[in-house]
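Record 1 of the preview.
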Amino acid sequence: MKPTARIGCMLVALLVLPTFAGLSRAMDFKPIPPEDLALKDNPKQPGADAMILYREVIVDASKASSTGGSIEEYIRIKVFTAAGVSHGHVTLEFSKEDDTIPYIAGRTIRPDGSIVKFDGQVVETTIVKFGNRKVLAKTFTLPDVQPGCILEYIYQLQTKPGYVQDLLWQVSQTVYTREAHFTYIPFTGYGSGLVPMYSTYLLPPEAALKQLANNSYTMVAHDIPGVVEEPLMPPERAIEAHVSFYYQDPSLPSAADSTDHYWGVYAKRWDSELEHFIDKKNALNEELSKLVTASDSPEVKLRKIYAGVLQIRNLSMEDFKSAKEHKDENLKENANVQDLLTRGYGTRHQINDLFVGLVRAAGLEATEMHVAPRDDELFVPARKEASQLRADVVWVHAGSQDYYLDPGARYFPFGLLPWYETESGGIKADKHSSAAVNTPNPTPSDATVVRNADLEVGSNGSISGSLQVDFTGQRAGLLRTEKRKEDETGRTKDLEDEIRSWLPAGSEFRITEIANWDDIGQPVHVEGALTIPSFGSGAARRLLMPLEIFQMSQTREFASEKRENLVYFPYPYEEIDDLKLHLPVGYKVESLPPSQNVDLKAVACEISANAQSSSVEIKRHLAVRGLVFSKDEYSALRSFFGMVRANDNAHIVLQNQTSAQNN
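->
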C-alpha cells in the first residue's frame, strides 16, 4: 500500500524544541466480525483481488510547537486472490528532514481465525533524493499471507516540532474501501496568526466533514472506489477523493466565498507582490540597455531578454541547501529585482518576475500567470484552493501575438513551455480580472525523436553501423533538466541505456558524440555505434528481417485488454525514423512489405521500405496528436498500436543469389 497520509509544504515556523516527546497510541486492533472472516468476494466489486474493510486515520497537529504533529493510521484488508497477497508487503514513505515513523504493528488473521503476529522486522531504504533532501521508506511484510486472510497494521508518523504543515488526506486508495474514518485536530496555538482551512474533492455523497466542539474535524466515508494504477493515467490528485487541510492568513478568502471573489482576491494579491518585486525601474532599465537596442522588433527584444535572464544563476535547479549551507555561501533572500541583478542569483519564480519587469521596461505588456502543473494537478476553479496553482509562467503580448514563456524552467527554448505547463488552467496576476485562462495546447512537433541509421547487414542476420538521434523540443528540455547534475560520463551512460532500451535484447550501443547539450535552442544530438547480433533469421538461401529495429514502448503501455482510467498522454509527440540497410554481398531484395499508412487523426503512423541497388531504405513516422482519450476509445487506441507493431514486424526477405544460382 502506498502511504495514505501525504504531508505537504511547511507553512510557518513556530517554537522549535530539540527532542521528541513520546507518543501515546490511540488505536489498537479491533475484533474481527465472523462475517468478514467468511467473506469470499467484494459484493460491490466482484472479482477484486482485495478490499479495505476498515481504515482509520487520526491526525493531531495540536502539539506542533512542542512535541510535533502526529499521524496514526489503522488499516484492515481482506485478501481474496493470489494477486491480492501483495498487499501484505507494505511501504510507508516519509521525509528524513521532517518526519519519523516510531511505531509499526501488524498481524495476519488466517481464514480459520488463528492469528500470526508481525515480528517487527522493518527495512529502511532511500527511495528518492532531491539534493540533500531524502524521501525514505520503511518496508515490512506481514506473515503467512494467503487468499482468505485478513491483514491489519497500525503505524504512527511523527513530525518534527516547530512547524504547522499542510496535509492531504488521500481518501481513495488503490483498492476499494468499505469504511473509512478520519479525525483531524488542528493547531490553534499562540501567535500563529493562521486559520485552519480545508477543501474537499470527489468525496462520496454522504461523506461530510464535521467540526466538533473542541475544534477538531471528523468524517466517515463508505464504498470508496479504488484508484487503479495504469500506464498513461491522469494525475492521481485529479481522480482521487481527498481532503486538503491547510493554514491560511485570515485576510485571505475561504472556500465559503464565491469563485469569482476567491480568485479575484488572489489575482490582486499576486499582482501586488509582482509589482513590489519589480519596482526598481533604474535597475531594470540599466539591465535592459545591455540586452536590446531601440531598433529591435518586439519579438527580437523578447528573445534577447529571454536569453539574458537565462544567464542568472537559477537556485531552483540546484541541490537543496540547508540553512547552514545558505549561511556558509552567504546566499541572501532577494527582496526585489535589484537584489537579484546585483547578486546574480534567484529562484525560478524570481527569474520569471525579473523577466516580466524587463519586458515591461521594453514597452511590452506582460504579467505572471499561476498555473496548475498537470503532471500533478488539473485546475478546477470551483475547488477554490490556491495550492492547485503551484507553477508560474509569463504571459506577454508583443506585436499582435500572445506568448507564454517560462525562463525559470531554464532548459526549454524560447516559445516552448515545459509540457506540464501546456494546456494548463490558471489565473493571471491582474488587479482587474480573475477569469481562469489556459496556456496553449502542445503540438506533436514540439516533442520529437528523430533517428537516422546507416547499417550493414551481415549474412548471419547481424546488424552494425552508425546511429544518430536528435531529441527536440520537450524531449530535449526534459533530458537537459533530468541530467543537469550529471557530468559528461553520467550523461553518456544514461543516454546509452535509454537508446539501448529501444533495441532488441542483446543489442549494444556506444556513444561517440553528444552535441548541443548546452545550447537549448538546438536539439540534443547523439551519435554512436550500434550492433544487433541477431536481427535477421533464415536458411541458406533467404534472410528474413523485421522492418523496424526500434522496439515500441507503447506495447507495454497498451498491454492490458481492460482499462479503468482515461488515457492521458503527457504531451503529443512524433517519432521519425530513416534507416538505411546495406545488404550482405551476394544478397538481393526478394520482397518488401507494402507501405502502410494508418491515420486515425488523433494518432497516425506511416511506414515504407524502398529497395535500391544494394540497400533498403526504411522510413517510419509515428504521431500521437491527442492528449486525453476516454475509456471507450482505449480499444481503438490499443488496436492502432497493435497495427503499428504488426507493420513494424513485417518482414523484408533477402535472397542469397549465389546459393540460388548453385541450386
